[in-house]
């Protein structure tokens, strides 16, 4: 009888320890994609109907100030390729500011200005950049850097805030021995890595839209 009691209280103790451990875990600890500024922006941003009808693509860039406590203090419009996208971008920025919490800053430095880049792309008007980028990387892996550079030049011209394009082109320049161009693209990649808070592309398909969110684990 005593032996059974000892076993019972031993198992009860194990269950209690497991419960305490579970309570200590953060409610935000889970396996899966992290919540990021892009995921919040993607909840509300849509491809404008007027831009869809007029078959336009565009980009809007905001500079946001993160204060010393990691709060999103202010936002300032610094670029809009077409005014048709400004209202939708402003709606998204206001939504981000209203739903901001300090953990979204992740490893970035507080008390700093960052960029939020919102691109609007209609694949029926402009070729999907993801497929072109994949093609450029295939050329790179096959040892054909010149062909890769040709594609990346165009992508960078159209999407100058996409850091991964500069990184791939830097590798291509390295393959052909162009040290100066390699260093220039490497520096631009590093600059975008440190200054971008969010870079979101919203695609339009007929009468609907979809945003591409970078996935991080």
What does this structure look like?
The protein has 217 residues and is of the alpha+beta class. 48% of the residues lie in helices and 20% in strands. A hairpin with a 2-residue loop joins strand 4 and strand 5. The radius of gyration is 23 Å and the shape is globular. Helix 5 packs parallel to helix 7 (163-175). It has a five-stranded mixed beta sheet. It has one domain: Alpha Horseshoe (Serine Threonine Protein Phosphatase 5, Tetratricopeptide repeat). It has eight helices and five strands, in the order αααββαβααααββ. The protein starts with a helix and ends in a 5-residue tail after the last strand. Mean pLDDT is 85; it is low at 2-32.
Distance between the termini: 51 Å
The CATH superfamily turns out to be Tetratricopeptide repeat domain
Which structural class best describes the helix and strand composition?
alpha+beta
CATH class: Mainly Alpha
Low-confidence stretches: 2-32
How are helices and strands ordered from N to C?
Answer: HHHEEHEHHHHEE
Please state the CA-atom Rg, rounded to the nearest Å: 23 Å
Number of helices: 8
- Named at the architecture level, the CATH assignment is Alpha Horseshoe
Strands ordered across the widest β-sheet: 2-1-3-4-5
Tags for this model:
217 residues, alpha+beta, Serine Threonine Protein Phosphatase 5, Tetratricopeptide repeat, 5-stranded mixed β-sheet, 8 helices, 5 strands
Structure, briefly:
With 217 residues, this protein is of the alpha+beta class. It is 48% helix and 20% strand. It has one domain: Tetratricopeptide repeat domain (Serine Threonine Protein Phosphatase 5, Tetratricopeptide repeat, Alpha Horseshoe).
């Amino acid at each position: 009888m005593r032996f059974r009691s000892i076993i019972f209280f031993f198992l009860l103790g194990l269950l209690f320890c497991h419960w305490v451990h579970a309570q200590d875990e953060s409610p935000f600890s889970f396996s899966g994609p992290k919540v990021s500024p892009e995921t919040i922006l993607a909840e509300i941003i849509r491809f404008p109907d007027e831009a869809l009808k007029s078959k336009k693509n565009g980009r809007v860039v905001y500079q946001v100030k993160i204060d010393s406590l990691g709060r999103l203090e202010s936002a300032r419009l610094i670029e809009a390729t077409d005014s048709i996208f400004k209202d939708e971008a402003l709606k998204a920025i206001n939504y981000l500011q209203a739903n901001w919490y300090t953990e979204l800053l992740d490893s970035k430095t507080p008390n700093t200005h960052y960029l939020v880049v919102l691109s609007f792309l209609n694949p029926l008007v402009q070729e999907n950049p993801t497929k072109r980028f994949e093609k450029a990387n295939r050329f790179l892996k096959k040892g054909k850097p010149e062909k890769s550079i040709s594609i990346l030049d165009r992508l960078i011209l159209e999407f100058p805030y996409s850091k991964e394009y500069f990184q791939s082109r830097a590798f291509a320049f390295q393959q052909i021995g162009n040290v100066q161009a390699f260093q220039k693209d490497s520096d631009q990649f590093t600059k975008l890595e440190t200054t971008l808070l969010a870079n979101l592309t919203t695609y339009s398909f007929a009468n609907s839209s979809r945003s591409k969110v970078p996935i991080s684990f």
